[in-house]
Amino acid sequence: MKDCTEYAALLDLYVDGELSAEEMEPVRAHLAVCPGCQAYVDDALAMRAAFPEVEDAQVPENFTQTVMAAIQKVGSPAPVKPNRPHRKPMWLKTLVPLAACVAIVVLVQQGPFRAGTGADTSAAPAEKAAPEAAMYSAADSAPESPQPPQTGGSGTAEDSGAPESLSPRLSAANGPEAAPTLTLTAEEAGALLAAYSPVQETDTALYYELTASEFAALFDALEQSGALLAGVSPVENGESAFVTVLK
Amino acid sequence: MQEQQWIDMARQGDQDAFAQLVQLYEKRVFALTLRMCRQREDAAEAAQEAFLAAWQGLPFFRGDSSFSTWIYRLASNACVDLLRREGRHRSAAGPSLNDEDVNIDAPSSAPSPQEAAEQKELHAQVEAGLRALSPEHREVLVLREIHQLSYDEIADTLSLDVGTVKSRISRGRKQLRKVLVETGNFFSRPSSKESGKEGCK
After folding, report:
1. Can you tell me the ipTM of this complex?
2. Cα separation of B135 and B77, whole Å?
């Protein structure tokens, strides 16, 4: 006869319907002759019967309306970090200078004045240049907009990848922080981001938005490949990670 | 299938379609957040955040898991986020019953008033017992017993491997049984009260 401890390991699977019909037979036969195991199964089923049901859940009144109101504030499902009610809309304040900075960085990188400085060996020349370019933010050429650049239904933001925004080719994909979570060169990124579609593409870079767990996986892969990843801030569960890949 | 149409439309930015999804899933999401967040206001906020995250994330939802698994995952994450933000700690204190907790659900439609009262009492004991568990054990039991997810689906939702799901369910179940035995008359049979262990061991 099979040892009882082996059956004990199967009882939860049995109770939860995780055993095939063939696997259940010996367990059923054992339960018929073993009061201890039978008691465990009985107790599990008694608890199950006393668990509340989904249908009994009391959802607060007007829950759907509350959710839709929050969604209307946020706008279309294009990649914009949600403007949570209890956070100040800081991204509004950073977006204009950010757009100007990055626009300037793009120009600087293309022009004869290269952005990288001697000591900077990181994969983020754009990040290095951004603070320098910040001094130009006052006299920006990007039009100021009092509204979020991606409002529901305005233009073809989510479809064409060329969202209506402050600078001709950039969206709010970079989120409320002033810099992307991570910037990589195309070589460093290799094929690691091949599974993802960029939320934005310009002549010089591809922009990706990843979940926390996707970003963690990417980070691990990069570490193994030996990429320099100093100063990359962690991404919390529920937050998005913004990854820029320079072409 | 209607739900798939709503998902496709919502992905394109159709808010009415998304509202349909909210109505379709609100009870399920709330059933989870309520047990993970304990306070009703927190549960409501986490549920709302889950749907907001779903709205934001729909363009990136690749459909390799089912929509329900995905929304449960967002709900689970929202609870974790909220509790971390608010700095609250779940204590492992013993079960306690107050009016709000006992009435956590709408009354089930039982045949007789006495049966309804008994059922309500059993629900309350299980709810109290769940609160005594660690969050990890509570979460897998809620997903298994209330949401009736398979081990694979739970593993997918919580980003765990199936072995971990199995052991958490097993330990969670034993722990819940222990709490129910110690605090009340949940199990009427004397044999189960005697043994704190499972099976023939």
Report:
1. 0.77
2. 13
